[in-house]
Amino acid sequence: MALCLNLSPASIICKCMAKASSHSTSNNGPHAFDAAFVRRAAILADKSAGFTSPHPNFGCVITTPTGAVASEAYLYAQGTTPAEAQAVAAAGELCRGATAYLNMEPGDCHGDHAAVSALVQGGVKRVVIGMRNPLQHLRGNAVRALRSQGLQVDLLGEDLTSKVMEDAQKACILVNAPLICRAASRVPFSVLKYAMTLDGKIAASSGHASWISSKQSRNLVFELRGRSDAVIVGGNTVRKDNPRLTARHGGGHMPIRIVMSQTLNLPEEANLWDMSEVSTIVVTQRGARRSLQKLLASKGVEVVEFDILNPRDVMEYFHDRGYLSIFWECGGTLAAAAISSGVIHKVYAFVAPKIIGGKNAPTPVGELGMVEMSQALNLIDVCYEQVGPDMLISGFLQPLPDILPTIPSLDETYAVDPTVSPYESSIIFFYKTWDPYGALSNFSPHPIQMPGENGDNVTWLSVEHYYQAHKFIGMDDTLARDSIEKIKSAKSPEEAAKIGRSMQRKRPDLVRPDWDNIKIDVMYRALKCKFSTYTHLNTMLLSTTGSVLVEASPHDLFWGGGRDGEGLNYLGRLLMKLRSEFLGESSSSCESPSIAV
């Protein structure tokens, strides 16, 4: 069955629901009923795409014993209220004896079982889950926790098996395709998009390309960009088209812009060097045009060098930076290199009803080295959708990793063989909140209470909220005060970081003049509060005794360890200092965050 997320991901899944529901209810019994609500949870989960990124997508539907919908909700972003907790709160007493439908097993941050606790305390009797969490250290944890509390848990593909259940589970898989790819490989989920004429050209022989597709198609592209963590183009696209690569669709997530250029033959002035709305990263070969690198750096553009520039290495790098999905809008040469490197998972091809001809007119994909039609790459799960006068054809270049059969979680493996422990290492890396030690991150969803300017306690939703706001605290300026309030009320740590970094970049004069001297102290106080407030986090930190803690950020050379260990790793150092203090091994004052460089 062809399922896809294109014109409107939710509407496409709805179409598939209707198609699947054509199966005889009498043949599938209650399975058709369960499958419909699991699909509804997948539709809800998809609603968060285009907001704070990156994060997994979770949806929850709660139904009463009579089958009526009591409530439904979705996770806005990492660090915000779980979908399950929102749905339970909305349902109230209707939760008693109810069934909760989830597109994916909850994946709480270390030691926090907010989703599971909400379902248990709300009185839910049964939980139907579309798929287990694909991250191995989280896989099966929530299922076991729910069952241990006496709830009936049914998993699609395991406890519930039928054709209609297979279709419902596929909807759940597609909604979290980027997370599944991350769990199974070292590259983000990558989508290649292009628009071409009916005769397969992406521009005229002269190079002119505006506009091949319709306004409706272009608006859809803005939406698709906004669903990704980053959008990538090649140098040729920058030189010829001078794109902005923004998601101009009325708000939502703005993906990072990536330019891939081996020689750095790029213009000194370009729309992509305007950092007022969103950041740009240029990846290039080591040593290329040092003068332009310095110019770009002066504009705030980050330049990352590779010994040999190729799509596979670039994607592995952005995988390490925590990116889940990449949207490729490049020309034929780079598209061919990306396909040949095996990093492209899905294709969106907009075909306009136009013919332009031209022997030398460029095509969407360059040379792949194929000489016979039998070598052609066939798309999987092909979908067709009319967008204005254009036809959108989409499909997968490679199948998504199969989540079946069930892979045991780390805890299950350890129960069978106690000698197996992936965490035994002299170095423990942490970065994203979904990692095994993700709760060490500033972005973990743990609110802290800290003294305010007036001596009263102020609640911050995360350490990152507190840290970003303190860049502007004490500045006698209306915009600085507004920034503090915006950061404080940001729904997620990612949004707080985006507001703080953007304002620092746009208005460096609003940043307190002593910031570079006090930022370590600010971070130290916030971390100390966090690990003093939450007992289970304190226990986790102490469990790392004997190991070096390294924030595995390949681009932050101050707080992180850097790409090749060249970073200062101040976040890891502060955590190790706190660990020492909690163990009583440090003779220095707990109020002194001084660290040897």
Report on the structure:
The protein has helices spanning 9-20, 25-28, 30-46, 83-91, 114-121, 141-148, 163-175, 177-184, 215-226, 235-241, 290-298, 311-320, 332-340, 410-416, 463-469, 478-489, 493-506, 515-533, 535-542, 570-583, and strands at residues 59-63, 69-74, 99-102, 126-129, 152-155, 189-197, 230-234, 256-260, 280-285, 302-306, 325-328, 346-352, 380-387, 390-396, 427-430, 448-451, 457-460, 548-551. With 597 residues, the chain is of the alpha/beta class. The protein folds into three domains: 9-180, Cytidine Deaminase, domain 2 (3-Layer(aba) Sandwich), CATH 3.40.140.10; 186-368 and 377-396, Dihydrofolate Reductase, subunit A (3-Layer(aba) Sandwich); 423-583, Tetracycline Repressor, domain 2, CATH 1.10.357. It has a nine-stranded mixed sheet. The chain has a five-stranded mixed sheet with strand order 2-1-3-4-5, with helices on both faces. Helix 5 links the parallel strand 3 (99-102) and strand 4. Pfam families: NADAR, RibD_C. It is an enzyme of class 1 (oxidoreductase). Residues 32-154 form the CMP/dCMP-type deaminase domain. It catalyses: 5-amino-6-(5-phospho-D-ribosylamino)uracil + H2O = 5,6-diaminouracil + D-ribose 5-phosphate; 2,5-diamino-6-hydroxy-4-(5-phosphoribosylamino)-pyrimidine + H2O = 2,5,6-triamino-4-hydroxypyrimidine + D-ribose 5-phosphate.
